[in-house]
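Re: [ENG-882] Designed sequences occasionally contain unexpected residues at chain ends

Forwarding the minimal case from QA. Structure tokens:
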């Protein structure tokens, strides 16, 4: 019961870790830079970490130009940025990136000429391209985040599948061990029959030769008989030693079989647990994949 409860809790926690995708909202806005208020475009970027997005935004602004972003009091300024998705001419960009309630707010004012900013008054074409540019940046940030989430959850799934594979391999090995030990027991028992028969024969021969030796007169023939009897005693000891060794092998094999037969059901129960975890984790992966596909379809 405790195992089932823990598994159920794990499954619930896995599902709760999947946040539903949030919309990327792009709007016309205004941004306070210094003491002035500039017409701007703002975009809401869900879930993504601030530092990563800030680094990518600076890289985007500085790409293709020798100009560098100057940051002061959270206000970012770059002169002569090359943003060909918006216009073929260099532009000045004033922007801010703020973090609130697990979402980022990126606001940017694009200055085409001195005091001439992209806004509805400058024409819908440039405004549309500027919105698309910011929306595309936000979407890319969100997609990269979810792709990392998918990879992390897929790794968890692969780790679980690896554990299951290891358990299945262990069970297969134990079943093979039972078969091999069964064969070993059968073989050793056959050997025991032969060795016990040999022991009986040797014991009878030794007894007979001892009686005969006791009745013999001293001489070369008696010495030869004594040596032969000694050799029979040696054979008997070797046979008894071999019998003990064979009995030990049988005992060891029987213990190994008993252990394997005890461990196989335990391994089976562990496999069942991992199969349930794999099913639960696979569902989590699919949720993240669905989330990724939904965000990729954002327009």
């Amino acid at each position: 019961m405790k195992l089932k409860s823990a598994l159920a809790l794990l499954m619930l926690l896995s599902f709760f870790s999947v946040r539903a995708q949030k919309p990327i909202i792009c709007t016309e806005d205004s941004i306070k830079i210094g003491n002035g208020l500039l017409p701007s475009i703002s975009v809401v970027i869900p879930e993504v970490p601030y530092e990563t997005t800030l680094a990518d935004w600076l890289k985007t602004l500085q790409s293709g130009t020798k100009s560098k972003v100057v940051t002061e009091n959270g206000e970012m300024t770059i002169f002569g940025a090359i943003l060909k998705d918006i216009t073929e001419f260099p532009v000045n960009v004033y922007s801010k990136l703020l973090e609130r309630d697990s979402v980022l707010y990126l606001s940017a004012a694009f200055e085409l000429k001195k005091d001439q900013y992209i806004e509805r008054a400058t024409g819908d074409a440039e405004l549309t391209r500027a919105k698309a540019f910011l929306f595309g940046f936000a979407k890319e940030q969100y997609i990269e985040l979810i792709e990392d989430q998918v990879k992390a959850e897929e790794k968890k799934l692969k780790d679980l599948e690896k554990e299951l594979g290891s358990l299945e391999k262990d069970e297969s090995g134990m079943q093979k061990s039972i078969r091999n030990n069964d064969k070993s027991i059968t073989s050793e028992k056959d050997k025991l029959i032969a060795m016990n028969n040999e022991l009986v024969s040797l014991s009878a021969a030794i007894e007979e030769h001892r009686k005969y030796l006791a009745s013999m007169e001293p001489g070369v023939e008696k010495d030869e008989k004594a040596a032969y009897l000694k050799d029979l005693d040696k054979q008997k000891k070797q046979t008894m030693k071999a019998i003990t060794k064979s009995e030990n092998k049988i005992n060891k094999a029987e213990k190994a079989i008993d252990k394997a037969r005890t461990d196989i059901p335990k391994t089976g129960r562990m496999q069942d647990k991992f199969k349930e975890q794999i099913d639960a984790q696979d569902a989590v992966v699919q949720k993240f994949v669905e989330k990724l596909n939904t965000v990729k379809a954002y327009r």
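QA comment: On inspection the terminal residues look reasonable. Helices lie at 2-16, 50-62, 124-214, 220-296. Proposing we downgrade this to a documentation issue.
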